[in-house]
Amino acid sequence: RKEVEQDPGPFNVPEGATVAFNCTYSNSASQSFFWYRQDCRKEPKLLMSVYSSGNEDGRFTAQLNRASQYISLLIRDSKLSDSATYLCVVPLPPTRGFGAGTILRVKS
Amino acid sequence: EAQVTQNPRYLITVTGKKLTVTCSQNMNHEYMSWYRQDPGLGLRQIYYSMNVEVTDKGDVPEGYKVSRKEKRNFPLILESPSPNQTSLYFCASKKGPNTEAFFGQGTRLTVV
């Protein structure tokens, strides 16, 4: 089983839609969780950390379900500029744990 | 400004000609690592380092070498590049095991 698994997509959604991605992880001892955003052929950048209590940043909400070992990312009111690949990161061991990414395409 | 700097950003080279991709971070991070990214395969770890003079293999180390003589630098060396090493390479650093990783801007390498 892979350390981190994501649905590769692509998710094609219209502007204004709500879209959600899930990511499952295999190591129950994982302590930290992140979502990164990667634009085409550019470096991944941190979108948000995922805390046990869940967290929200504007239109983005991240949640953690330890019992089922998955994290989720919800994007509300999608914008064209949200089109990117979203990487789930569960760093255990510390320098590994990158999901292959989920492609989001927001269309007008 | 806190950053990870890779050079060069783009490189076209010929098979067998040794090359080095440099990576430097100014955040005093302990952990540094190299990844390659190919279409449909995500980020694959080449080598990583948890401290000065401590390096270890990742998932795809064949054909690559690294060194960590100073905390800030972690160069990636291709002694004899081959076309199957054509890829997009990223260097990353992080402070601790549960902290976020910072990535360099990437090096697009083509070996002909």
Defining key terms:
heterodimer; A: 108 residues; mainly beta; 5-stranded antiparallel β-sheet; 5-stranded mixed β-sheet; globular; B: 112 residues; 7-stranded mixed β-sheet; 4-stranded antiparallel β-sheet; 0% helix
Task: Walk me through what this model shows.
The complex is a heterodimer of chains A (108) and B (112). Chain A has 108 residues and is mostly beta strands. Chain A has strands spanning 4-6, 11-14, 19-25, 34-38, 45-49, 55-57, 60-65, 70-75, 84-89, 102-107. In chain A, strands 1-3-8-7-6 form a 5-stranded antiparallel β-sheet, with no helix packed on it. In chain A, strands 2-10-9-4-5 form a 5-stranded mixed β-sheet, with no helix packed on it. Chain A is globular and about 40 Å long. The model of chain A has no long low-confidence stretch (mean pLDDT 94). Chain B is an all-beta fold and 112 residues long. Helices cover 0% and strands 51% of the residues of chain B. Chain B contains no helices and 11 strands. In chain B, strands 2, 4, 5, 6, 9, 10 and 11 form a 7-stranded mixed β-sheet that branches. A 4-stranded antiparallel β-sheet of chain B has the order 1-3-8-7, with no helix packed on it. The interface between A and B is medium-sized, with 23 and 26 residues.
